[in-house]
Amino acid sequence: MRLPATLDLDAPYDRLESLPRTLWLPSVIASAGECGRRLSDARRWLQSLRDGVLPGAQADFGDPEATKPLRAVVGEFGLPGLARGVPALAEQVLRTLLWHLDRIVDHQPRLTRDAAIAEVAASFRAAWEQESAGLDEDLALLQGLGDLAQLRWDSLRGHLRSRPWAAARRASDWLRQLPALNELIRRLGRAERSVVPRAVPERREPQAPAPPRSLRAVETRLPDAPGEITGVRFSSRLERMLASEAVMLHHPVLRKLWRARHAEARLLSWETEAVLTDWRVDHSAAPHLPVPPAPEALERGPIIVCLDTSGSMRGAPENIAKATAIATLRAAHESRRHCKLIAFGGPEELIERDLGNGVDGLQALLELMAQAFDGGTDIQTPIERAIECVHEARWASADLLIVSDGEFGCVPRTLDRLQQARSDFGLRVQGVLVGDRETMGLLEVCDDIHWVRDWRRFAESASGDVRGHSPVHSKSLTALYFPNALSSHAARHTSSPAQ
Length: 499
What we know:
- The protein is α/β, with parallel strands linked by helices.
- It has 19 helices and ten strands.
- The strands form three sheets. It has a six-stranded mixed beta sheet, with helices on both faces. A two-stranded antiparallel ribbon has the order 1-4.
- Helix 16 links the parallel strand 8 and strand 9.
- The longest helix has 19 residues.
């Protein structure tokens, strides 16, 4: 028997190719409607959910009476808006909807069809009422930290129910109270030209050279010296003789006249004058102070974060450090910038992670959220590693951000290498001080220091603004009371009595 040429042996299952593998089984075995219609409508539902809109009522899987109340529940909880940009959530909504459609026949004949549809709709509503509680806030934070297109629903739900994610949510809440820190992190890097000029801090020079004095031009004229032609005069110098005089040498009679004129020094010759210009100091003029060129304002480039995870950071400083890590990853994700996290503690306690836009960056952040801050402080290794990164093309325009309480010191060799990186690559080192005063180590390493003065307020047990206020009137106690104790690297900072 010969089959018709127009017969498609794969229909309607060829429509499975456009659906994710996780939707194949629910779309095929659901008892509602006809298989070909279900597969076509499943594709429409999935595309609409990914676009963040509710599909049209005509996409009813061949069973409009049963699909209508379930579709109303999807719109009531705003699931299409939550599923925009989250493919795993869009698939889960469609998968659970098909599963509940298939449950209608299980309630019959114990219940009438209308009663079975109402039972299934109530069950669908209860499931997503629990599942969507707080989901909008979690997804808003999660989408700001990475690309969710690669996450499956079980992985996504596992992240949202984990203890590290709870810590990340608390850190995100604390981050809202630190707008200045957010702005600092947003401008880190040197890949784009900024429309806002960067403030240049004053630097105290140990021995400033005397300003140059104005110069004036003094001209000295030398007559009859080789130089500019100023006229014609009588002379006996052959090298300056006019061409009209030289022509007479070829005439038998005029040759005698030429000899007579030469003897009397009456040959027509060029008159010249040399002018010598001598620049001398003008003592009557005021000293001229040169204006240095304004530095080019650059921002929004790669970020290297050195996070202090030593024991002295436990408590409120730890919470601020985790909030800084979230703000850094969010800023890097929004503008597609590279971001590297270097968490350091004592010797040989170094964790280096690239906080990219994929799942690995999010996983690295969650690992940091779960990490306990303990141990000593070794600043040498992370700074040396950051300097090595700056020598790579990928991180050449990066800024270095150090988050610490400043309880560390740096050897001169590392400080010299850091200064060389500043000169060669324009590296800027920003510090986030989570403490009451600047330490010598922080002053020597950082170009600018952002002080989180109310850091005590971010402790788990802190309550109210008064408890979190720092009792110290200025972070620069060393510069105020012991200015001679500052090293040459630390003396670059200009201190004021109240900061």
